[in-house]
């Protein structure tokens, strides 16, 4: 009579074996003759390349999200200071272009808060309802920025139209206006460089999208400075006209944000098929590959593909070779979070 307790313990231990460790276990085959049939047409099992030991990308996720959140908090403090300076001075001086640009800067701070919420949700590990993880919450947070930008465009256009139609009177432009705008431009340039560098290093679309938005803030601020120069020279109409230009900059920033996030949410291709094929074909024993598909964000890619292996290769060896392909792909491209390899014989085999 079989020992059920022992069998259960052995089954539990087997479940805890990782995929990379499991491929080293050669299960007995009931028909040894079948295993040795047509051996001359397949690679020697002893020569099948062993999987490469690579770090688990999941172990690096908590640190990455902590760094992204740290950057967002620092940028939020700077954006809030810039926005308050512009809004307070805009209301006190009556410079509509400065005020409009202040509301634009306020959306930068709001988007930082949204980004922090998205990053917190995205850092949660995979669960039963989200087997692929929560990574897209970061992308969703980035897409919400477009809603803030839309509201700001409406507010800026309203203020500009009111000024052009005479509903509000022109105010005197002082040298303080120039000082406020020049200081904010310098701060925004620092934010753009800082977020772009960290966004590329961490592969975070939230940081890269926010840097794009802030870059638009720099251009709009420079436009406002030009309007202030014109108003100081006796052409106050340039102030509301500059506000219209600012609205255009904001709208363009929103378009860029929507374009980036839509590509991710719609599962647009992430990696070039030819680059992945070169890595796959570098594995000895692989005859070809096709149906290569990638999706996700630039730093969190899901990959699936079909690999052609010799039709007479035993299943154990084919399984081992598929893991060699997977591990080599993930070692070459660390941004691949997971890869599904489907093994099949090459087409048109007689």
Short description:
The chain is built from eleven helices and three strands.
Structural account:
The longest helix has 33 residues. Helices cover 63% and strands 8% of the residues. Helix 5 runs antiparallel to helix 6 and helix 8 runs antiparallel to helix 9. The protein folds into two domains: 209 residues, Cation efflux protein transmembrane domain (Alpha-lytic protease prodomain-like); 84 residues, Cation efflux protein, cytoplasmic domain (Alpha-Beta Plaits, 2-Layer Sandwich), CATH 3.30.70.1350. It has 350 residues and is mostly helical.
Provide tags for this entry.
350 residues, mainly alpha, Alpha-lytic protease prodomain-like, Alpha-Beta Plaits, three-stranded mixed sheet, 11 helices
List the helices and strands and how they pair.
Elements: H1 4-15, H2 19-22, H3 32-36, H4 61-93, H5 96-122, H6 136-164, H7 175-202, H8 205-232, H9 238-265, H10 273-281, E1 288-297, E2 300-308, H11 315-332, E3 336-344
Parallel strand pairs: 2-3
Antiparallel strand pairs: 1-2
Helix pairs in contact: 4-5, 4-7, 5-6, 5-8, 5-9, 6-8, 6-9, 7-8, 8-9
The low-confidence runs, each spanning 5 or more residues with pLDDT under 50, are 1-43, 53-59
Summed up, the helix count is 11
Count structural domains. 2
Cross-sheet strand order for the largest sheet:
1-2-3
Q: Under the CATH scheme, which architecture of the largest domain would be assigned?
A: Up-down Bundle
Largest sheet: 3 strands, mixed
Helix-strand sequence: HHHHHHHHHHEEHE
């Amino acid at each position: 009579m079989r020992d059920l307790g022992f069998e259960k313990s052995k089954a539990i231990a087997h479940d805890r074996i990782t995929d990379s460790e499991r491929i080293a276990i050669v299960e007995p085959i009931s028909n040894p003759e079948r295993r040795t049939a047509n051996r001359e047409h397949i690679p020697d099992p002893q020569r099948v390349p062993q999987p490469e030991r690579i770090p688990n990308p999941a172990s690096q996720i908590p640190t990455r999200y902590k760094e992204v959140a740290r950057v967002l908090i620092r940028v939020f403090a700077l954006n809030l200071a810039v926005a308050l300076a512009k809004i307070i001075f805009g209301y006190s001086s009556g410079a509509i272009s400065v005020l409009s640009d202040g509301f634009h800067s306020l959306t930068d701070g709001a988007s930082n808060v949204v980004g922090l919420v998205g990053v917190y949700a995205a850092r949660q590990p995979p669960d039963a309802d989200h087997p692929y993880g929560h990574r897209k919450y970061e992308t969703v947070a980035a897409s919400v920025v477009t809603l803030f930008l839309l509201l700001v465009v409406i507010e800026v256009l309203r203020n500009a139209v009111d000024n052009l139609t005479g509903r509000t009177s022109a105010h005197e432009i002082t040298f303080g206006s120039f000082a406020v705008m020049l200081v904010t431009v310098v701060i925004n340039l620092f934010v753009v460089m800082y977020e772009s560098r960290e966004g590329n290093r961490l592969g975070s679309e939230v940081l890269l999208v926010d840097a794009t938005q802030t870059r638009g803030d720099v251009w709009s601020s420079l436009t406002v400075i030009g309007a202030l120069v014109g108003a100081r020279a006796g052409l106050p109409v340039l102030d509301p006209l500059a506000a219209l230009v600012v609205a255009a900059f904001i709208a363009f920033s929103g378009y860029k944000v929507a374009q980036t996030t839509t590509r991710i949410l719609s599962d647009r291709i992430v990696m070039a098929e030819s680059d992945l094929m070169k890595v796959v074909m570098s594995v000895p024993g692989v005859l070809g590959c096709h149906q290569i598909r990638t999706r996700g964000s630039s730093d969190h890619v899901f990959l699936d593909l079909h690999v052609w292996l010799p039709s007479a290769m035993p299943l154990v060896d084919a399984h081992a070779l598929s893991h060699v392909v997977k591990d080599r792909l993930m070692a070459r491209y660390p941004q691949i979070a997971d890869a599904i390899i489907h093994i099949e014989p090459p087409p048109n085999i007689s």
